[in-house]
Amino acid sequence: MIAARDPAPEPPQTMSDPADLLAAYLDFYRDAVLRKLEGLSERQLRTSVLPSGWTPLELLKHLAHVERRWLCWGFAGEPVTDPWGDDGPDGRWHVADDETVEDVTAFFMTQCRRSREIVAGARLTDVAAAGGRFTPPAVRPTLSRILFHLLQEYARHVGQLDVVRELIDGAVGE
């Protein structure tokens, strides 16, 4: 089970710097994912309620790989073994039976921490490193483009978790 968390507030209306806004909203959505999963039993985290078949725990692991793929391997150009996780670029998300909820949660938290470090050391106009995900002649996106992609990915998946949580136990909202 994922421990209860105090809801992170949405970034303040007075925040106007684009870099600060992107970082703050990413943290807001990272926290929202964990809030949506808190209180679910191990069985609920590992059981799908959707025709597509993904489980809440698989989504959490997917998002950890998204962070790793876009910021560590993509933007920073760091060598990353298996950047797509167990899934492959077009495969289904997967959490092995021997992976605990704590393991997947820790992996997610570690990747989010590393992403924050990478972003803190760069400017929005910086271009992704050559190599890693963006090997020439591939177009290398700016950090702002990557962060906008991550933001939309999180927003979409938090919305999906809203529906999943409502189907599991009727919880709605935050």
UniProtKB/TrEMBL annotation:
Write down the superkingdom of origin.
Bacteria
Q: What is this protein called?
A: DinB family protein
Q: Which organism is it from?
A: Actinoallomurus vinaceus
The organism that produces this protein has a lineage beginning with: Bacteria, Bacillati, Actinomycetota, Actinomycetes, Streptosporangiales
